[in-house]
Amino acid sequence: MALNCRDIAREVYDLADSQEPIAPLVKEALQVIDQALDTYGEDRVSISFNGGKDCTVLLHLFAGSLARRHPSPEYNSKPIKSLYIPVPSPFPALESFIDKCLQAYNLDLFHCVPDALDLSGSSSKRKENGHTSANWLGMNGDMSLAVESVPSPEPTLNTHPHAGTSVGKSKGGEGMRRGLELYKQRYPDIDAILVGTRRGDPHGATLSHRNMTDPGWPAFERINPIINWDYADVWTFLRKLRVKYCVLYDEGYTSLGSTYNTFPNPALFIQPSCSTAATITNGSAANELIPPPVQAVPTAPSPAFSLEPELPLDAQEQQSKTKQLRYRPAYELLDGSLEREGRGSYPSLVVNLASSEASLEARCGNV
């Protein structure tokens, strides 16, 4: 169902003018977007959208900014020009969320898919993936279009419900560069792209609100409206305005990438209570796990986040117990510096249940 972008415009600009703590950041972001539209015009500005929480915030702000420029009730908003360059093996739930955003925000989404060969955007592959409003462009199965490198998971620890097999070597930066080249070829009039990068993101520390792409890359101005937002600001905005976001964030994920290197955040892991310890030990999920207060965990590498090859559980037993793990939603993460603790190898904190059981016995007595 399509959203009413005029309602979005009213909500975001009202929030910007309010006394809410987040109001200055919302006002700043809207000013950056408005200035980019003043510089280039609506037809020459696009948005990078991959379904994550940051670009969901950005898309909502962008939709409001565009609608506010056309207050007439008779105005039919144009499709929002947007770009999606997927990682290797994206989460199905994430792609489903992107599908919903196509209609909700009226996106004209350019989707670089390695195995989509029809350059006209009307191939059967397009229909199979459900992106009925997306433009597709591929490069004969070339996995270098992936936008992040992912490690090869250990087969014996490949037990998380979303885990898969290795995709081999992928070139993150090169994939993004080539994706932008394809976009420039298809849409040569686009000069600026809105990006949901924040200061705390990798490579975000030195960016400003507006930066040109590096030498050797397609010429775009990167517009970073929420560069000064932090993790908590993102969730404050999404929840205050009741903005729909990907369901994975309600399952303990705090930073989304490939299924091969993205897991629920260990800082949101719900420790079993004394009353459920026996249930976990016996491999039964009859009782619900009771969530304690979320505890911060260290950001530096520690044994809690390393893969121990000598885990005491065999693969089959480990898989059975891993399925019972519970996590609190992403917006309950207290320390934003831990946002990316779920990225990389599967943390032993959430699979080494033998240690958890020993800790429970010490706290509650032998169960």
Automatic annotation (TrEMBL):
Residues 45-262 form the Phosphoadenosine phosphosulphate reductase domain. Residues 150-175 are annotated as: Disordered. It comes from the Eukaryota. InterPro entries: PAPS_reduct_dom, Rossmann-like_a/b/a_fold. Pathway: Cofactor biosynthesis; FAD biosynthesis; FAD from FMN: step 1/1. One of its GO terms (molecular function) is ATP binding. One of its GO terms (biological process) is FAD biosynthetic process. The keyword Nucleotidyltransferase applies. The keyword Nucleotide-binding applies. Keywords: ATP-binding, FAD, Flavoprotein, FMN, Nucleotide-binding, Nucleotidyltransferase, Transferase. Signal peptide: none annotated. Its EC number is 2.7.7.2. It catalyses: FMN + ATP + H(+) = FAD + diphosphate. This is FAD synthase.
